[in-house]
Design a protein that fits this description.
The protein is built from nine helices and 17 strands. It has 362 residues and is of the alpha+beta class.
């Protein structure tokens, strides 16, 4: 501060208070069962059967990570040697709250020393330059700050509750969606037979398409194409209506709905390409495009380990540990054995699978 307001004073900290180290306590003398709080470097660390000061004290954390932080101890408190205690002169005793606020903006680089083990010595603290206002102005500053900071703390408490509130709201919306509540009115105009017939047509078309692939491979004298996983399931055995479901909903196995890819066990030995290598920790949102590691594979590296490229709009899902963590793939990727992939299907929307899995996880 270069230009002081009229009436303000600049001095060294040693001119307005005596600085002392707190008193160390052995762990056996600190307990949760005792009456008086013990203040360490940055807060209460336990309780003791005696206290050092009747009134609250302004402290400077003097050892470790919090070195230079200004704190205000509670009344009837013991202060350990990890904090410096500022014992103000008698005429300034009532203004400790003002100095606590005023010192919050001190330049720590001028009195905190040590890089690996930061500390504040009494000698360094004595030379801290401080600015303080006339007594009446101090009282007004403290009163104003008390009022404003109370509002800040109240606002912070409300903001801290928002993530949990949003999580509950999201879960309630998901629950309403996957239970059919959100589409109840729309469903009243539909019949379950409409959906049965649509699924049957799609499944029949899948069988026809596969037969055409087989015929084409025969004509071209190629190896018979692998049978899609969903053709191992029959329509009648895997599409059912449950009385507990909404009237037009059906229950089906994921294997019937989608073809799937199960990755091999071999991990690539090199990563020089641009196709992202995705592992379980990368599944932190409903969609995925890149990985945290930055590792990518080339086509030749994928072939060496007999890997398979997961196409866009597939759903990848965890199959070990916490089962069902899912994401929609937004570009071609390769996955490790912690994940399975369900390919895009005309029967079910990828993001619906992800959100249904999220509800199952809840």
């Amino acid at each position: 501060m270069t230009d002081l307001p009229i009436g303000w004073t600049k001095c060294l900290l040693s001119e307005i208070c005596e600085i002392k180290y707190g008193k160390d306590l052995s762990l056996k003398n600190i307990s949760a069962k005792e009456k008086y709080p013990v203040f360490g470097a940055n807060g209460i660390i336990g309780y003791h059967n005696d206290y050092m000061y009747e009134e609250e004290q302004v402290l400077i954390s003097c050892r470790g990570t919090y070195s230079g932080k200004i704190n205000l101890s509670p009344r009837k408190c013991h202060v350990t040697h990890n904090s410096l205690i500022l014992e103000f002169k008698k005429e300034l005793q009532k203004e400790k709250k003002y100095f606590y606020y005023a010192f919050q903006n001190l330049d720590k680089s001028k009195f905190v020393t040590g890089s690996t083990q930061p500390q504040v010595t009494i000698a360094n603290a004595n030379n801290i330059e401080v600015y303080f206002a006339p007594l009446n102005e101090q009282k007004r500053i403290v009163a104003k700050l008390d009022k404003l900071l109370t509002k800040v703390e109240t606002a912070k408490e409300r903001l801290d509750k928002i993530p949990q509130t949003l999580k509950r709201f999201r879960q309630s919306v998901l629950s309403a969606a996957v239970s059919g509540e959100l589409t109840k009115v729309w469903r009243e105009k539909k019949s379950i037979m409409d959906w049965y017939n649509a699924i049957a047509q799609i499944h029949n078309q899948r069988e026809v398409s596969y037969q055409k692939l087989i015929e084409l491979s025969k004509r071209q004298k190629l190896i018979k194409p692998p049978k899609p996983n969903y053709l191992n399931y029959s329509f009648l055995d895997n599409i059912n209506h449950d009385a507990n479901l909404p009237n037009t909903w059906v229950k089906a196995t994921v294997g019937f709905l989608c073809d799937c890819i199960v990755p091999g066990r071999d991990k690539p030995k090199s990563f020089t390409g641009k196709i992202p290598w995705i592992t379980l920790p990368d599944l932190d949102s409903e969609s995925i495009t890149v990985n945290r590691s930055g590792l990518g594979l080339s086509i030749s590296e994928i072939k060496k380990v007999k890997g398979k490229i997961i196409p866009k709009n597939s759903v990848i899902m965890s199959c070990i540990g916490r089962f069902g963590i899912s994401s929609v793939v937004e570009n071609e990727i390769v996955i490790n054995q912690q994940l399975h992939a369900f390919l895009e299907s005309p029967i079910v929307i990828p993001k619906y699978i992800v959100r249904q899995a999220a509800m199952e996880d809840v």
